[in-house]
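Quick one: structure for this chain?
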Amino acid sequence: MTEEYGLLEPEESEGLGDEWEELDVSDTEADRIARKQDREFLEFRKRIKNTEQFKVEASVFDDATLGALYKLVQDGYIDAFGGPISTGKEANVYTALAPDGEVAVKVYRINASDFRQMRDYLDGDPRFEGIGSDKKKVVVAWTKKEFANLSRARAAGVRVPEPLAVERNVLVMEYLGGEDDRAKRLNEVHVENPETAYEVVREYTRRLYRAGLVHGDLSEYNIVVHDGELCLLDLGQAVTVHHPNAQEFLERDCHNVAAFFRRQGLEVTDDDLLEYVTEAEPEPDGDEE
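Got it. Here's what it folds into:
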């Protein structure tokens, strides 16, 4: 059956992209739980570290990260943990059961190997001024940045995982996938309707831009097909249009997307996509009866 790849309807919103708030990267309840380490937390830590499905690594699950997971359980966002969906240099993603079904739990490593690359995306973003070089603060800011970017994208009508909760370096969000496997990336599937898929991706890229965001790492590797919809992933590195490297990141996104769809047989160019994405939003009709 041919995929139709319908577009998500945007929410009503005003002033997208201009009212960025500085995010708090000070110690959270997770840090206080880790320092206190009472009997219940110690039992939780032991249970998680003994869960074979979780494949706990010391570099990922320090005490404060376990404190964040413990707090998310206490707050009712997670009931039980599942296995890994993906592992990477900066983060691991796991499934978990929540009161309303399955969710994805993304755990950013405090000792991220690409720490300097994170700084390149954060520096110049007006939401994250004054963070300094504290590694923990940078990773916490990055996690909150992804939560904020996902919220902004959804409000603009871009299909991304719904962000549900954030605690320190742990992000809980909608799980895209079925009972047996995660949603497939575009590079993993046969794109049955490349023309429509291209139109959806370019429209979502434009909606992001009009919402004041540039994805910054958009390609076939972080666009998935879920229930007949195309969904964008990995918005942790997305920057505001005010970022000094925003234009460079946008041009790279357009190149990656256009190159993928050229390989699908479409006659599309980087410049045409860039022009479409940055086209000024039409002025509202001022005629009144």
